[in-house]
Amino acid sequence: MKRIFFIDLDNTIYFTGQNEEQLMGELYRFLENLDLGISQADFQLAKQEMLRTPFLKVAKKYRFNEKVMPEVISYLENRSVTQPLKPSDDYHYIKSLTGRKFIVTAGFPKQQLSKVKMLGIANDFEEVHVVDVSSTNKKERFEMLIDQHQLNKDDILIIGDDAESEIKFGLELGITTFLLDPENLHPNAESTFKGTDLSSLHAVAGQSDYL
Ligand SMILES: [Mg+2]
Question: Could you tell me one molecular function GO term of this UniProt entry (predicted)?
Fold first, then answer.
């Protein structure tokens, strides 16, 4: 049975698309008032990608004007989500797991912590870890958690939607993984388990008495 859970936040516990205005409205308006040096069409595409991809990656891909980037980054570092967010309809499958739960998420700390607060889920987790991907990654954080809490890898299940981050790193560490892939975007991705929703989570964790 799995009794320790490392859980991703964005698009695992809640879906960005269902909370677009609360999450992105202000950021979109902030960006619209800057000279990003890109076409309106590219800006629309970039906005869609920001919903599922870290901002800095999107900025690089669409070649946002480098002159405005310090201003954008300082805005992102200081912003927090101030309106309630809605957890996914499947969140109860996570909440009802028996054991120790840790959120391990990547991004700007103030923003990620405010999301946890606005989702109203802070009390469901033992710890919330925000990983700064410019200096480290989730793999190092998983190792740190295992070390710090003297965890047994066999007891751990990693749950997330990013095949190239938490799932890949989990497998590299020999940890069981569950890839949430609602739109079947990663049919060939490696993961111990996969689902288009979280309804099999309890069976995967060996806690199948929950219906
Ligand atoms: Mg995610």
Answer: hydrolase activity
Report CA(209)–ligand 1 centroid distance (Å). Answer: 27
Ligand 1 center to 21 CA (angstroms): 18
**What is the structure's pLDDT at 210?**
63
In the reported structure, the alpha carbon of residue 51 is separated from the centroid of ligand 1 by a whole-number distance in angstroms of: 10
pLDDT digits (tens, 9 = 90+) for 112-158: 999 999 999 999 999 999 998 878 999 999 999 999 999 999 999 99
173-209 confidence digits (pLDDT tens)? 999 999 999 999 899 999 999 999 999 999 999 998 7
Long-range Cβ contacts of 50-57 (<8 Å, 24+ apart) = 50/24, 51/16, 51/17, 51/20, 51/23, 51/24, 52/10, 52/11, 52/16, 54/106, 54/107, 54/133, 56/134
* Interval between CA 107 and ligand 1 midpoint (Å): 10
Domains of the chain: 4-15+85-204 (3.40.50.1000), 17-78 (no CATH)
Q: What is the pTM of this model?
A: 0.92
7 Cα to the center of ligand 1, angstroms: 9
